[in-house]
What we know:
With 315 residues, the chain is mainly alpha-helical.
Amino acid sequence: QECFESALKRDKKNSRVLQAYAIMESRRPDGDSREAIGLFERALKVKPRDAGVLQAYALYVADLGDVDAARDLLRRGTEVDKRHAAVWQAWGVLETRHGTAQAARDIFQQGIWACAQSGGGQSGGRRCARLWQAWGVLESREGDHAAARRCFSRALDADKRNVAAVTAWTLMEEDLGRFSDARSIFERALRQLPPSSEEKMAVWRAYELMEQKDGNQNLSQQVYQRSMRETFTINDDFIPEPKFVAPREVPSSDDESILKTSREVEVVRWKTDRVMGGGSEVWLNNGNIEGKVPASTMKKSNSKKAQQQQQSSNK
Length: 315
């Protein structure tokens, strides 16, 4: 509340801040309805053609029980912005709950005609998806399941990422006991949604819950494992591969030059293809694998051995 008041002190005519403030006030358990309505009215006074404010205001007064006032606000919303699909949807849902099914159908149809996009095909494009989905829910409640399927299908044709349409359709088929059809809808949606997206994760979860409700614990676990497998696979793709620098191979022709420039001498070199793999070189001394020793050490060792041999021969 203090943040909203501070923002309004700087900009008293910010309709978005007034709208958000009003919505917060309307959702508070101890909120003042008069305060919320006053904020909505202030927002409309600043921007009377804001369909978003009209929609939120209508939903609030509908919750207060004033359906006629909510209907008038939603009608105003469609007049100031006829392409605002959320307003049309809210109005249709209002008629579904408090009016007649036919009135709701008329609202949904008018909204689809108004919001249809060029190139959107028969379904009208993405903006119409929410209207088709809400219309499908209406037909499902009315018992016309064939009509509901047509509406849900249109919703997914308009927007394949419309999770609400997928879940509403599968819930209807689940209630009808048509679990195989529900699985087909889930599988088709999963093929079309991008991996690890929020929409796809929601579909995975709904799919898993459906199998649980049907008592198919094994299938539910399989769905969960598939979702986890996909998640881990996608995450692994984004783990950068460790940078590996291959050791530089020294050509055999340079071996002698390297030995000359270093302060090491070769004990014994034995090339073999079987001891350590093809083309490997193994250092041996009396059958023992060794490394290389400094030249000075090697000279001292050879000198000491020569003295010992001379003393032995003198004896």
